[in-house]
Amino acid sequence: MSSPDAHVIIENRSLEEKFDPEMRFRPLPPATAWLVAGLLLTLSFFHYYTAGFGLLREATHRGIHMAFVLGLIFLVFSAFKSGQERIAPSSWWRPGSISLVDWALAVAAAASSLYVPWIFNELAFRVGNPSPTDVVMGTILIVVLLEATRRSVGWPLPVIAIGVMLYAYFGPSMPGILQHPGASWSNIVNHLYLTSQGIYGIALGVVATYVFHYVLFGVLATRVGLGKLFIDLATCVAGRFAGGPAKVSIFGSALFGMISGSSIANTVTVGSLTIPAMIRVGYKRHFAAAVESAASTGGQITPPIMGAAAFLMVEFLNVSYRTVILAALVPALMHFFGVFMQVHLEAKRAGLKGLPAEELPKAAKVLREGWQTIMPLAVLLIVLFSGFTPYLAAFWGITACLVVGASRVPAITLGFLAAIVIAIATGMLTQLTFSVPLLGLVLALLVYTFVKSEAGKALVLDLVDAFVVGAKYAIGVGAAAATVGIIVGIVTLTGVGFKISFIVTSFAAQLAQIFMDLVPAGLADMKGMTLFFTLVMTAVVCILLGCGVPTTANYIIMVTVAAPALGLLGVQPLVAHFFVFYYGVLADITPPVALAAYAGASMAGADPFKTGNTAFRLGLGKALVPFVFVYGPAMLIVTPEFTWASFLFVTAGAVIGIMFLSAAFAGYALTPMRAWERWLIGFASLPIIAPDVQMTLMGLAMAVPVVVSQLLKARGAMVPRPA
Length: 723
What we know:
The protein contains 32 helices and no strands. The protein has 723 residues and is an all-alpha fold. Keywords: Cell inner membrane, Cell membrane, Membrane, Transmembrane, Transmembrane helix, Transport.
């Protein structure tokens, strides 16, 4: 398994564009492409500069970000799919192959986005009493925002936003508990446009402050070779064992997910190497694609970068990013462990071998040639865990990428790392007297590399292109975040979130009462069953919503609507947020709209729906673990309930339960399993996973006959029979 060449990289990008709506860019002629690239580069440099030298005033920073994002969407995304297939001919009504309508929408988006920062000093007198101009500009922004979101992430999110605005306007006509006094269009625009509770709210702020920088860091880190290093190391570690390529897929996806934060990007990048290798050693095509896509969905839940929702969690919960990283660590490991066990047992059952020795890279050579590419991630983590802001950590991580990309000289790499450590130790990291000279040296290094040779010029241009691509990848999530601000704004304007929470908990209580009437007294309690049914309904809605809405938007909507219901039942905010986050991510491998699974199926030439079903089965660890940390919050480490005893009990139960469930699905443990063994061990795994002593002991007792049977059969298979 070697690293992908340029042809494979281009093919991977086309697959990302095919399956991820946020990456379906329209082709442009050279002159327009240069203009758009310049705007994208300006957007990246704006965020890079502000991350290192201080953010602007909140409204100004968010306004500039949204002006660029929305304006660029109308330039890089066509209104219809037909516009993504070929370059449209230029004419007087389509200058630069972009229609006058799109140019006008881009200008309107930029102007209406910058209007609020422009009137900021008067905003205190305008909120609650908008002028006609305010209402017109707000209406323009809402319209262009909905259209920009439709183009970049699809129609479901704009439809939801329109639906909630209609709910706010027609409040008096709503039935039952959903009825409210209603709001005029002027009041709706006022709340969504002029306050920080709507479009300019937390969601947009987090994307403009954190998410953009980490998307850019991930693209740059991949360009300088960190992704290649991770995949090669995974091949060294796991490639030789039974079903080796599948295990490489899991380890490689886990490592690559640390910097990508995207399920589809993870699938096509790692899968370009692992899926053909899995098929070659004997895995069925749909299974190979399912392994890669199931493992790749871990990219959004794997520290340190994770998905955009992790940064939103920081703002919503007012906790440090380090807290979120620590909380995510064990659940992420459980996800990859679940996929690993099923892959391992499937390989043993089918008698699959690992990769031949000649195809395995040498670990010493891989580390000798690529160790410098780890430096950007090391810098990011050092700054982050030293107590600095996530965006400052991203700033120095990006700067480290530039150093590594422009120079492979070990002394320069180690010198930069040493300078960061010394600056942190002396308190100089945020001082201009440190950062300006160091950035000057980095710029000089880039200039020297550029003029030194043709290879150096190509290298620097590739880094510049990474800034362009990073911005292009981030604009879709920017539009989605602003549109979610509409939904959040309507929820705060009408108070519908608490009404929905009451409806959900009331219905869950009714289901719990029915269940209590059916089971023997003392087997379950009313409160616990009400919580269980509330969790089930929340999980189902997360998955259904995730079928058409990006993970970040899904998370914000569910946190706004469902988290209060969980809070009413005593679930801690951090735990509730992680629950909806995990189930939102699960939608990427849940049919009928399992985008990561479909991307993998396309690469493997497999049936998409069959791939999605298999990927969901492989990802069942991710589906069960959220229930575990709701009932056993010690798994998240940073919760008040954490003790080593409770943490080890909860985690050990999850590990054993996932092992048994994997055996049931694979039909193999130590030896092939009979039907009764599979059913019994499968049912036994569920109470074992439950973080309750009595339930765990009951599950272990149920599993004893299967364990004994497997041990006896394995022993019999090992004892040679007499001739």
